[in-house]
Recover the amino acids of this structure.
């Protein structure tokens, strides 16, 4: 019995941003993240027959993506010597004490915890955006995250400015509610 | 939604201006009108507070999206594979 169906045509619009944020938290590189998302879509296409419809499309894609990320780390770690720590501090006059400087804590740096929190927040926000109706989500993303001008968005979607603000208002209200539930 | 010349605006108008203000798109007069309403309207204050919180959260999360050209590229490649 399959309740969930699969439709690759909508993948890029629906899931690419979510998957991308999920990946970038884990690999920390834009280019690599893009490639991994693309590979995930391809792999999904290949194994479409095996999709049983028990999970949602997104969950299924995420599980593929997780494999891809693990594969990625396997690949870079098998390049010999990369994991080695090189130490080349010498004790001759000028460079003496360099190691000390490297180990001084930087109080202005964000601590690791707040960084992780921020990254998870990104995923949470995309989760909420995913729940918006598609047009609302697109416009909200363009306006809020990519920072397009009102006029530019109006042209793309062929709507008036007040129309846009109504859509933004609905999106923001829904977002606030969703984040209130899942994050704050 | 147009805001009229009156300095006292409705709650709906206030929300509308507040949304605009989150993106720095509200005019000075609109901001003044909003602030007047904020003084005496509890609902507007609550909305404004929530709205600002949302903006801050999104800002601190440093969200990333794929560029639309990259998305188009992905779509094309998917189509190519699909038609095979």
């Amino acid at each position: 019995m399959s309740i969930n169906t699969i439709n690759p045509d909508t993948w890029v619009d629906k899931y690419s941003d979510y998957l991308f944020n999920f990946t970038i938290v884990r690999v920390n590189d834009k280019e690599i993240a893009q490639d991994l998302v693309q590979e995930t879509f391809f792999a999904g296409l290949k194994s479409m027959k095996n999709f049983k419809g028990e999970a949602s499309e997104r969950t299924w894609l995420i599980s593929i993506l997780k494999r891809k990320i693990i594969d990625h780390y396997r690949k870079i770690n098998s390049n010999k010597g990369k994991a080695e720590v090189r130490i080349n501090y010498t004790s001759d006059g000028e460079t003496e004490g360099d190691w000390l400087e490297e180990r001084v804590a930087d109080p202005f740096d964000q601590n690791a915890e707040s960084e992780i929190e921020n990254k998870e927040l990104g995923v949470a926000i995309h989760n909420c955006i995913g729940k918006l109706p598609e047009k609302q989500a697109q416009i909200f993303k363009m306006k809020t995250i990519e920072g397009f001008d009102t006029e530019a968005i109006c042209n793309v979607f062929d709507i008036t400015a007040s129309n846009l603000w109504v859509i933004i208002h609905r999106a923001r209200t829904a977002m606030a509610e969703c984040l209130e539930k899942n994050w704050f | 939604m147009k805001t009229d010349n009156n300095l006292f605006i409705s709650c709906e108008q206030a929300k509308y201006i507040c949304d605009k203000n989150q993106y720095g798109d509200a005019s000075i007069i609109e901001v003044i009108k909003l602030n007047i309403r904020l003084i005496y309207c509890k609902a507007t204050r609550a909305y404004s507070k929530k709205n600002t919180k949302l903006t801050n959260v999104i800002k601190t999360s440093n969200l990333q999206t794929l560029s639309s050209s990259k998305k188009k590229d992905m779509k094309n490649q998917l189509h190519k594979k699909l038609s095979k």
DSSP finds four helices and no strands in chain B.
